[in-house]
Design goal:
With 254 residues, the chain is of the alpha/beta class. It has a single domain, classed as Rossmann fold (3-Layer(aba) Sandwich). Helix content is 44%, strand content 14%. The chain is built from eight helices and ten strands. The strands form four sheets. The chain has a four-stranded parallel sheet with strand order 1-2-3-8, with helices on both faces. It has a two-stranded parallel ribbon with strand order 4-7. The structure holds uridine-5'-diphosphate (UDP). Residues 11, 106, 118-119, 122, 134-136, 141, 143, 179, 202, 205 line the site of uridine-5'-diphosphate.
Length: 254
């Protein structure tokens, strides 16, 4: 079995070297599919809700083809992942490879990197340090956040499913919230004095995102079990401990 998760997933990271990001998704998929073919292994691709772009269909169902800018700053990630899906399905049709494609929606949890740059770790670290909470745009855009253990359970169920279940299948938590609501919730859970400030909205930032998970539910018997509040509390505890140890060691004090 091969799980192919290789690719930076945070916008700041994947936009740092966009050519390499596309290469990672496309050449990476070609390399791994070739390996799976030679070994007769089944292979799972970590695809993404970004294949839906700035979605005109809400919540997103797997049949929706998406609304993706092919030449914008997010395209290296979106189109790289879309091309990887194409390669997976062509290897399946042309070479009878056993494939599994999951589309992952915003995942978070303990052991994220402090400089990950995505919204959950940014807001938690800002709240813990008493810094300003940086909401991009007016904060009315939505996301649906899935706790890491739920995602992993879904990926393993997908890998173990019958060969005729190829996907693509959405994996995510349909509990949707605005970025402003997320900021307020994290401030409350941390008990932080931090204030919310606004920053410019990045180009092509999707307006809304929520998975329809009926397929994961009926085909894999999967649905997420960790509510946002509970997952955030666990993630806050992780970063709190990390900050305390790093401050003690003089690594990243305020
Ligand atoms: N965002 C924000 N403040 C931050 C980082 C992100 O308001 O410090 C917003 C971002 O504009 C987007 C949402 O949070 O609307 C999720 O961004 P993230 O980078 O976590 O992932 P995305 O879903 O955009 O890939």
């Amino acid at each position: 079995m091969i799980y192919n998760l290789a690719c930076p997933a945070s916008p700041v990271h994947y936009q740092h070297d966009p050519v390499q990001t596309t290469k990672t998704s496309v050449h990476g998929a070609i390399n791994m599919l070739g390996l799976a073919k030679r070994l007769g292994a089944k292979i799972l691709q970590a695809s993404t809700s970004e294949v839906y772009g700035d979605p005109a269909v809400h919540p997103q169902v797997e049949e929706y083809w998406g609304n993706v800018n092919p030449i914008g700053p997010r395209s290296c990630y979106d189109e790289g992942k879309r091309c990887a899906e194409t390669l997976f399905f062509d290897y399946h049709r042309q070479h009878q490879l056993r494939i599994k494609v999951v589309r992952i929606f915003n995942t978070y949890g303990p052991r994220m990197h402090p400089n990950d740059g995505r919204v959950v770790s940014n807001f938690i670290l800002q709240a813990l340090r008493g810094d300003e909470i940086t909401v991009f745009g007016d904060g009315s855009q939505t996301r649906s956040f899935c706790f890491v253990s739920d995602l992993i359970d879904g990926m393993q169920r997908m890998m173990q499913s019958a060969d005729d279940i190829t996907g693509p299948i959405n994996l995510g938590n349909p509990e949707e919230c605005t970025m402003r609501e997320l900021a307020e919730l994290i401030i409350t859970l941390v008990g932080s004095p931090s204030k919310v400030v606004t920053r410019p909205l990045p180009t092509d930032d999707p307006r809304q995102r929520r998975p329809d998970i009926s397929k994961a539910n009926s085909l894999l018997g999967w649905s997420p079990s960790v509510p946002l509040r509970e997952g955030l509390a666990k993630t806050i505890e992780y970063f709190d401990t990390l900050l305390a140890s790093q401050t003690q060691a003089g690594v990243i004090g305020r």
